[in-house]
Design a protein that fits this description.
about 120 residues; 5 strands; 4 helices; five-stranded antiparallel sheet; alpha+beta
Length: about 120
């Protein structure tokens, strides 16, 4: 599996997990807000994949208050696109629920690199 494919699968699954749980997402890069409090997966994905690194802030749907964050870095091995994240619940739990999926992607990337 190629790096870009791995990144798109992992980030897509992450964004979908947050949106399906009822959260709004803000994309920030270098201190600039590229997209604010969105529930549109395509817009979020487009904003994220237009940069090399970004903070993805998770917001409460009712108040818009940020309740957690994920720092994404693109261009490394792909499976390591989630570089850092909050340990606050429920955001932490959603991220942790993806560990098996991310592990499977990592195995596929490493296998492809060895071939």
């Amino acid at each position: 599996m190629k790096r870009q494919t791995a990144e798109k699968k992992i980030v897509g699954k992450l964004v979908e997990a947050f949106l399906s749980s009822g959260y709004l997402l803000t994309v920030e890069c270098d201190g600039y807000v590229d997209l604010k409090l969105s529930d549109d997966k395509k817009k979020v994905m487009d904003a994220l994949f237009a940069v090399d690194e970004a903070h993805l802030f998770v917001g409460d749907k009712d108040s818009g208050k940020h309740i957690g964050w994920v720092f994404l870095v693109f261009g490394n091995d792909g499976y390591d696109v989630i570089c850092d994240h909050t340990t606050k619940e429920p955001v932490y739990g959603i991220i942790e629920s993806l560990n098996g999926f991310i592990g499977d992607i990592e195995d596929k990337v490493i296998k492809a690199q060895r071939s």
